[in-house]
Amino acid sequence: SPHSSYVWCQFMAFHVTQREYEQARLTAERALKTINYRESEELANVWVAYLNVENLYGTPESLHAVFQRFVQHSDDPMKAYTALTQIGKASDHRVLVEKTYQTML
Question: What is the phi/psi pair of residue 38, to 5°?
Fold first, then answer.
């Protein structure tokens, strides 16, 4: 189904395994345009996958840009903050976690 985040995220993961990071980003963008806006959980899953791609293969600026878009387009911005905090903890980015907490407060 074109509205399934699972399929889109698997496609993104395929591109990452092929070291096609720009293709993974383009796939995320296509998913965000294709998945119906009413499917907020599916969209959130794609945003989280996109954040993970940027965290691992992007720059701090690209990660921040995707995060800001997630906040802006989310029906629950706390999901974006929670996701970024969890990504920061998992990748041991103490500064990222601290900045996210400071922004939340």
Answer: -75, -15
61 vs 54: CA distance, rounded Å: 9
What residue has token string 């906040």? 71
Write out pLDDT tens, residues 14-73: 999 999 999 999 999 999 999 999 999 999 999 999 999 999 999 999 999 999 999 999
Distance in angstroms (rounded) separating the CA atoms of residues 95 and 1: 38
CA–CA–CA angle 105, 40, 42 (5° rounding): 115
Tell the residue number behind the tokens 């996958």, with chain if given: 49
| Residues 63/54, Cβ–Cβ less than 8 Å | yes
